[in-house]
Structure formats: structure tokens, C-alpha cells
Amino acid sequence: MKFMTTFKFRDGAHSAAAKKFLEGGAPPPAGAEILGRWHASDGSGGFSLLETDDPAVAYEHALTWSEHLEIHTVPVLEDQQVGPILAKVYGS
Description:
Layout: E1 2-9, H1 14-24, E2 32-39, E3 45-52, H2 55-63, E4 69-76, H3 79-90
Antiparallel strand pairs: 1-3, 1-4, 2-3
């Protein structure tokens, strides 16, 4: 299952978050893989795409950064997953 995370730096936490990232690179917990991470060009935050079969692992990953970042994580589906559902619901 894929989870999209959006993150925004908490007030005054940018330098501490940057230091933590540079020291460890923000690896995911065991049982998860980061498929991509993108940073907003204005420096306000960014997005990451995590894959795991255990939602608790997504929670753990968010929790390790919650001191520095405001984080929102949602499960996401790809087009090939959504297409059949749309066809079923709306007919095609």
C-alpha cells in the first residue's frame, strides 16, 4: 500500500529539521520503502511517497518527524487501481 505524506516545517523548526535530515537522511522504518521525496521550491515543506503493508509503519515514520514537521499522511491509489472501480461505479 502506498501512502502520500505532505509535510510543512513547524515554526522555528527548519534548521533543526535540516540538521536531522543531513545527519541521517530520513530513512523509513523497517517494513517500509520511500519511493520518492520531493521538496517544495519555496522551502516550506514537501511530499514523500512511502510503501508499506502496515499502516502502523507509516505512523511510526511520521511520528519520528512530528517534532519538526506538521505531517499529513493518506493512503493513495494509482490510476490502474482506480480505473476498474470507476468503471464498476459509473459503468463503462
